[in-house]
Design brief:
By secondary structure, chain A is α/β, with parallel strands linked by helices. Chain A contains 11 helices and 11 strands. In chain A, strands 3-2-1-4-5-8-9-10 form an 8-stranded mixed beta sheet, with helices on both faces. The radius of gyration of chain A is 16 Å and the shape is globular.
Amino acid sequence: MKIAIIGTGNVGRTLAARLMELGYDVMLGTRNVTDKLASSEKDNYGNPSFSEWFKSNSNVRLGSFSEAATFGELVINATHGSNSVTALILAGSKNLAGKILIDISNPLDFSNGMPPSLLPGLNNTNSLGEEIQKTFPDTMVVKTLNTMWCGLMVNPKLIGNGDHINFLSGNNTEAKTRVRKLLNQFGWSDENVVDLGDITAARATESMLPIWLRVMGVTKSGAFNFKLVR
Amino acid sequence: MKIAIIGTGNVGRTLAARLMELGYDVMLGTRNVTDKLASSEKDNYGNPSFSEWFKSNSNVRLGSFSEAATFGELVINATHGSNSVTALILAGSKNLAGKILIDISNPLDFSNGMPPSLLPGLNNTNSLGEEIQKTFPDTMVVKTLNTMWCGLMVNPKLIGNGDHINFLSGNNTEAKTRVRKLLNQFGWSDENVVDLGDITAARATESMLPIWLRVMGVTKSGAFNFKLVR
């Protein structure tokens, strides 16, 4: 199965490497392929430049946003939340039509300092997940994995034997079932993938970022998650 | 030690009963004592009227907001978030000055239907906890317990042997230490009471309400909480 990942940051790379390991054919989509391969800058978190990473992951395909969206039978949005809608418009609504789009992004607003808040207009009574669904009505948006560090997204068993929570929301039940199967392959048990209903539940999962960021500030590590205790 | 609880709803009553059990002298503060005792209406959640509850909890004192604030050496805000600032102004800033105010309220906005969102102006880049601290600069506001059902606030061992999370934030370290001791008496272990720093962290804990409400919508019970897995 062909999977496209829109975004080439640490999250996109982590997903790409894991999906390749699971046997998927993966294309990363970027704004400008030539620029991306030419740049030797590390990102803000000290991760190697894309070209450096690409040398040891050359079996991953690289294309423009629109090439990636065309290639993927399933598409994952792993762009920064502030760029997501723009990047997906460049990917092309016709290339995304009829497909599942897994949205793992968060509408983080770094303009007021640290820790970031959520972007105006995309929090509380709206969300980035909903905004994407409204912008691409022919695409089946499924929000998931956005409440944790990317290392845990693709390998929950790194901590607590994988017994911690991940949320799922979206308007299309069949799309959520298919995404759940992919999450199972990453190591998520069905019990720990909680379906919150339609895409408006993205308001709730995106609203977990403030507590996630504060806890990370205290524990000094992103390798944590929450478990539902009942 | 004398403790005042501002608010006579289910949360205030639950706290009052537990604090009495622990040997504290407790006064509940209400807007109008005569009206409160005269009313026989159940609340929106089917809890008995205050006068009904008071019959079997007559060792709890009842006073006006300002009588309660005067009485309490420590004060707890257990009002609805939309009324909190008004109720505390009626309690009187001079009666609250120099005291610890434990704020367990949430700025829920029911005006857009269910599940509620957070009140405009009191979310994302502000919070109710901060707003109260700004309104009463001579009071030591400590935000805690606002991320769970009141039954768990005062008796965390009801689920998962009490091994789940509660957050603490506030500008005064000594006040947080004193509140932590009270939380210990409720059954919270030090390990599970995570100090997130100053009162701006209330933005993060109040932002957990949307996910709390969605999970409650799925599990059909408020008797759950999150545990930090690392």
